[in-house]
C-alpha cells in the first residue's frame, strides 16, 4: 500500500467516524464562502484551511472547492446529458475497422528519461498503427540521462516501413538553448512534432493525431484494444478530441479545465502552500478531483481542457494551434493554451471530452 492510499483510508475512517457520530450526511455538496480580496483567500490569510465545501470567489474568477468525502467530482458535476454525443447506434465492428483502415493516423510522443517505458510504448503504438491504412510515428526526446534516446533510435531504425521518425532535440537545459522551464521544454518538443507533421508528414491528409506520453501509454494490459477503439464509437462530427483516464485515480488535474475546475489547480496549490503547507493545499485543490472515473461511467465528460497522458484529436482541428508552457509570468500546463486555441478557432465547434473507456494506465508512474 503506498502513502496515498494509506492517507486515503485514514481519511475514510475519520469521515466514517464523524458521519456516524454526528448522524449527518451533508445533503448539499458545495456551498459558498465569499471573499473578495483581489485573488488571495482571506481565510488562508488566517493560516487555516477554509471549510472544505466551498466556492471561493476572487475578483477575477470563481473557484469552487469540494471536499474529497462527498460524491461530487469534476466529472459528474453540472453535466448536460441532452447535449452529449451518444455512441453511434448503427455501428458494428466490421464497419468500424473498415473506417480505420481507410484512415491515416499520426502518432506523437515526447520522451525524457523514459527508457523503462519505451518497449511498452512501442507495443501500444504497434497495437494502434495496426488498425490504420497509413501511419506515421513521430518521437521526440530531450535532456535524458538514461538510454531513452538509444532505445528510440533502435525503434526508428527497426520499423520496416520507415514510418517512425526520431527528433533528438538535444540538451534543452544547456546554456545555448536555455529552456529552464520544464513545461516550455515539453511544449517545444510537442510543437516540433506537430510542426513536422504539418510540413513533412501531410497532417492535412490525416484523419487523426494521437498524442501520448510513454509513462501513461505503455501498458497493454490496461490500455487495451477495446479501450482504444471506444474512441471511434462516436460520430466524427461530434468531437474534436478524446482524452484518457486511469484506473487508480484521475491523475492529471493540471491541464484540466472544466465547469468545476475552471482554474489552474497547481497554481492554487502554489499560492496557498505558504500558509497551509503543501499537503493541505494539495488536498483542497487537487485531491478532491482525483477520484477515479469508473470504466463503465455511461457518459462522455465534456471539458475545456484535459490530457491524462494520451489524447486523440481529429487532425482537421490542428491546422494552426501550438503548445505553450508559459503564461505571462509562470508555467502553465502546455495543453491548456493548445486546447483554448482549438476551441477559439473553431468558434466553439470543437468539443473536447474525457472518454471514461479510454483508460490507459493504472496510476501515475514516474
Ligand atoms: C498568507 O498569510 C499572510 C500572513 O498572514 C498573508 O499576508 C497572505 O496574504 C497569505 N497568503 C495567502 C495566499 O493566503
Ligand atoms: C455491419 O454493417 C454492415 C453495413 O450496415 C453490414 O453489411 C454487415 O453485415 C454488418 N455486419 C455485422 C457483423 O453485423
Ligand atoms: C526489430 O524488429 C524485429 C522484427 O520485427 C523484432 O523481432 C525485434 O524485436 C525488433 N527489435 C527491436 C529492438 O525493437
Ligand atoms: C545538459 O545541460 C546541463 C546544464 O548545462 C548539464 O548539467 C547536463 O550535464 C547536460 N546533459 C547532457 C546529457 O549533456
Ligand atoms: C536563460 O533564460 C533566463 C530567462 O528565461 C534568463 O534570465 C537567463 O539570463 C538566460 N541565461 C543565459 C545564459 O542566457
Ligand atoms: C504555430 O507554429 C507554426 C510554426 O512555428 C506557425 O507557423 C504558426 O503561425 C503558429 N500558430 C499560431 C496560432 O501561433
Ligand atoms: C481565445 O480567445 C479569447 C477570447 O477572445 C482570448 O482572450 C484568448 O487569448 C484566446 N486564446 C488563445 C490561446 O488563442
Automatic annotation (TrEMBL):
Transmembrane segments: 12-30
Entry keyword set: Membrane, Transmembrane, Transmembrane helix
Taxonomy, superkingdom: Eukaryota
Protein name, entry field: Alpha-1,3-mannosyltransferase CMT1
Originating species: Didymodactylos carnosus
